[in-house]
Specification:
alpha/beta; binds alpha-D-glucopyranose; 16 helices; eight-stranded parallel β-sheet
């Protein structure tokens, strides 16, 4: 049995806001900090505990804030530093934590550090970035590919060397082997923690260190056309180097200089590598993000199997976590369909580990089709036409049925889904059977049922496409049965009482023996 912890990031639910798309307060069509402050009461009613904000720092916006030109400011598009302080104060006033995005792997090419670095080979900041001579034939130093397509090396005429960029050429990678770089970023972390932030989600943390010998990556024998071009190679030498874990442990020590803060890592790796980021003796990230559900085939066998593999891979004492959506991946309601989106919600909020939910998923927002002339995402611009674009999951939050869904009085920076007239927060809040009401209920139950937070995870055998498990804690057992198919199903559960069904229509029903499930239905049963 797991020991009861009281740490907020273990017991709580994290909610990701993509600030450009949450709420505009000044009519420029782009969301801002004052807009978020105005929506805190909504988040409080939803019941979440912490907000993670995608980057809000000054940026040329080549990658919409993931290209930072000043780590300790606020981009005027989002407001001022005073607006940020007001947000932290207001959020804390509502009992909500604030987690910032930390983007330490790369800066904008407009960051003063890079401007200096590229100015000459003997500039003191030269070694803050990754510069390398061309091969004798003038070509790039290695075959490493940018995640956004093409070589990850950009030749710089003025100084005759290449610089490395894992993403856009406008996002040069910092040299994390240089202690001065490390210390500069650690100072950034301290700056924001002194300012009151409760932790960081660290962008592409598994990318921080690159091979010292700059060896070529091997080709990927399983690469197929239609996949992102960088997958043509296995990133053996460009990511997940062993020394990265030392850096993560250092970051953790910085976070631990302050009370009660959290360190979350963005890591797309298989479980055996992912869990290494908890660090030896759990000295690394508190929560290396577990993205397995973002690409899982949506059937009970596949999901049951991946939960078992994750649970088995976790080091002793490591706290699990689950993610259903983010600003880089297609919306869950489109991936699995509207009916299964409710089942997915019950899954996310009843698994063992901290749930992170993505803004809008609680109202069933779908992937919005983006016409070629509406494309904003640099990934889609660089590698067009194969469905890699991320704009469709970043569209404005659908607040109400009024013009532009109440997101802005101006022209929204991305189009709204045409369904916003009924698929919006106001309408769904008023409907006791809506997906939003389901989320509210699930988050509330999680708050009041220690077995959902601290209980062990015990898989239960079920026939058909049903995923079933028990969460057991302190003599209490709750059974969760999720029908991942559209047809009816039945499961022997013994005696109990239904606490919640995804249709919000079976509360209090007694069960004895068999539990009947409608198609696309999930049910939580308190077993006696
Ligand atoms: C992360 C972010 C993504 C960004 C990339 C480069 O994967 O989530 O949005 O484009 O890093 O910073």
């Amino acid at each position: 049995m797991a020991t009861a912890a009281t740490v907020w990031w273990q017991a709580g639910t994290i909610y990701q806001i993509y600030p450009r798309s949450f709420q505009d307060s000044n009519g420029d069509g782009i969301g801002d900090l004052a807009g978020i402050v105005g929506r805190l009461p909504y988040l409080r009613r939803l019941g979440i505990d912490a907000i993670w904000l995608s980057p809000i720092f000054p940026s040329p916006m080549a990658d919409f804030g993931y290209d930072i030109s000043d780590y300790i400011g606020v981009d005027p598009i989002f407001g001022t530093s005073a607006d940020f302080d007001a947000l932290v104060a207001a959020a804390h006033g509502h009992g909500l934590k604030i987690i910032l995005d930390l983007v330490p792997n790369h800066t904008s090419d407009q960051h003063p550090w890079f401007v200096e670095s590229r100015s000459s080979r003997d500039n003191p900041k030269r070694d803050w970035y990754i510069w390398h001579d061309p091969k004798p034939d003038g070509s790039a130093p290695t075959n490493w590919m940018s995640e956004f397509g093409g070589s990850s090396w950009q030749y710089d005429e003025a100084t005759g060397q290449y610089y490395y960029h894992a993403f856009l050429d406008k996002q040069p990678d910092l040299n994390w082997r240089n202690p001065a770089v490390r210390n500069a970023i650690y100072e950034v972390m301290r700056f924001w923690m002194r300012r009151g932030v409760d932790g960081f989600r660290v962008d592409v943390i598994w990318h921080l260190i690159k091979d010292e010998e700059f060896r070529d990556n091997p080709t990927n024998p399983n690469f197929t056309a239609g996949r992102p071009p960088h997958e043509a190679f296995l990133p053996l030498y460009s990511t997940d180097r062993p020394e990265t874990l030392d850096v993560v442990a250092e970051m953790r020590r910085v976070v631990d200089e302050f009370d009660d803060r959290v360190l979350i890592g963005e890591i797309y790796l298989p479980f055996d590598r992912l869990v290494a980021y908890y660090g030896s003796d759990l000295s690394g990230a508190h929560l290396p993000f577990n993205f397995a559900l973002l690409s899982a085939p949506w059937n009970a066998f596949a999901i049951g199997e991946l939960i078992a593999r994750y649970e088995a891979a976790l080091p002793l004492g490591a706290w699990p976590n689950w993610v259903l959506g983010n600003h880089d991946r297609p919306r869950v309601a489109s991936r699995v369909g509207m009916a299964q989106a409710r089942v997915a919600a019950m899954l996310l909020l009843t698994l063992r580990g901290t749930p992170t939910l993505y803004y809008g998923d609680e109202i069933g927002m779908k992937q919005v089709p983006i016409a070629p002339d509406q494309v904003q995402d640099p990934f889609e611009k660089n590698v067009p036409g194969i469905g890699l674009g991320r704009d469709g999951c970043r569209t404005p939050m659908q607040w109400g049925a009024t013009e532009h869904a109440g997101f802005t009085t101006g022209e929204p920076w991305l189009p709204l889904d045409t369904d916003y007239h009924h698929q919006n927060a106001a309408a769904l809040a008023a409907d006791p059977h809506s997906i939003l009401s389901l989320y509210v209920k699930l988050i509330e139950l999680r708050k009041h049922m220690p077995e959902l937070v601290f209980g062990g995870y015990e898989p239960v055998d079920a026939a058909g496409d049903v995923l079933a498990y028990r969460r057991v804690y302190d003599g209490q057992t709750v059974l969760i049965a999720l029908n991942l198919s559209g047809g009816p199903a039945s499961l022997h559960v013994g005696a109990g009482e239904i606490l919640l069904a995804t249709g919000l229509d079976r509360h209090g029903e007694n069960v004895s023996g068999a539990l009947e499930l409608a198609g696309n239905e999930g049910v939580m049963v308190r077993l006696r």
